Amino acid sequence: MSVHTAAGVVGPRRYRNNEKMLALADPVWQAAADEGLLNLDVEVAGNRLVDTGRGHEFVNLCSCSYLGLNRHPAVIEGAVEALRAEGSTALSVSTTRVRPAMLTRLEDELGDLFGGTALAGLSCSALTSGILPLVASGHLAPDGPRVMVFDKMSHFCMSYVKPVCADESLVLTIDHNDLNQLEDICRKYPSVAYVADGAYSMGGTTALEGLLELQQRYGLFLFFDDSHSLSAVGQRGEGFVRSRIEPNPLTVIVASLHKAFGAKGGVVLLDSPRLRDFLLRHAGAIAWSQNMGMADVGAALASAAIHRSPELGELQRKLRSNVALFDELLPTPFAGDGMNIRFVEVGDADLAVALSAGLYERGFYSSAVFFPIVARGHAGIRIMVRADLAHTQITQFASAVRELTA
């Protein structure tokens, strides 16, 4: 067996030492591991974590629970109540065959809350892997198979499905938010789909206004993963994309329920119940996967109730206040964009790991991000700003970054 790396094929005869092969495959990741920044075993202590190996307490700035709902008492109680009421952890059967009534209730609730028809799944990734090939094949909208155009920065869970989509249609990748490239493709091919994030995992948003113009002009199909803005944006937490457009046959939105929503699983927002039923039967991982667990459904129903209360707006305002403070103390290119993710660039990958390690020693865990997640020479640290962070914690973090990068 051979391992494919950026340098080519590493054969077993040339490298018999497994550790040497692994070091060749991911030297920067190994450097992060050597600094004690990977695979941490932790215990929860409020909005802080404790590294059980070192007894080191720290603020986790990698958490995507932007509103802190993952530890909300009502959400936790919702999970416990669901287990007690159902008397089972899960049905352990394909969702196509048998579904708990509680799951259907959740989908009705999410559809009403966020607008459109909702289909819940085990994860956003499972939903994506099942739906994208059907977009490519032309089953989800008229005009037959669609040329699949992926934004260069689209999340890995979507890019991972490119080879499967390539069995159905032509797959292309364009520069980030490059609407000129996309329009050229729309002029060349009669049926095109664009695959992108709504709010990107490295910061920033999709060029939604221009995309909607292309949709109107060329019938462009839009597929968005809006996981990083669901709950954090919108009057009912409907996210960046849904808060700006109405459900329509040429737009599909998938999102994780495991981020700001504070539960677990994923949801896809569609324009019709007919399409939902079709996906349940034919969309790969959606059809063959198990149902969501009872605790996950119960937690999601409890979170949905919070989304209908004034508390959602209060949490969103706290989040915006924390983001504004962060932008004031550590200005970055995405300052003022209304999103929750910030990226401090240092350039060299080793410097990014060193900065992450230095911050961890000072009580803050932030992920070092480097190639291939970002372009070579543009490494840095990614920070997830949350509503449940204190202003003092943000101020101390900013001070530590300035000190370490001076």
TrEMBL record:
<dbReference type="InterPro" id="IPR050087">
    <property type="entry name" value="AON_synthase_class-II"/>
</dbReference>
<dbReference type="Pfam" id="PF00155">
    <property type="entry name" value="Aminotran_1_2"/>
</dbReference>
<protein>
    <recommendedName>
        <fullName>8-amino-7-oxononanoate synthase</fullName>
        <ecNumber>2.3.1.47</ecNumber>
    </recommendedName>
</protein>
<dbReference type="InterPro" id="IPR015421">
    <property type="entry name" value="PyrdxlP-dep_Trfase_major"/>
</dbReference>
<dbReference type="GO" id="GO:0030170">
    <property type="term" value="F:pyridoxal phosphate binding"/>
</dbReference>
<feature type="domain" description="Aminotransferase class I/classII large">
    <location>
        <begin position="59"/>
        <end position="400"/>
    </location>
</feature>
<dbReference type="GO" id="GO:0008710">
    <property type="term" value="F:8-amino-7-oxononanoate synthase activity"/>
</dbReference>
<dbReference type="InterPro" id="IPR004839">
    <property type="entry name" value="Aminotransferase_I/II_large"/>
</dbReference>
<dbReference type="InterPro" id="IPR015422">
    <property type="entry name" value="PyrdxlP-dep_Trfase_small"/>
</dbReference>
<dbReference type="InterPro" id="IPR015424">
    <property type="entry name" value="PyrdxlP-dep_Trfase"/>
</dbReference>
<keyword id="KW-0808">Transferase</keyword>
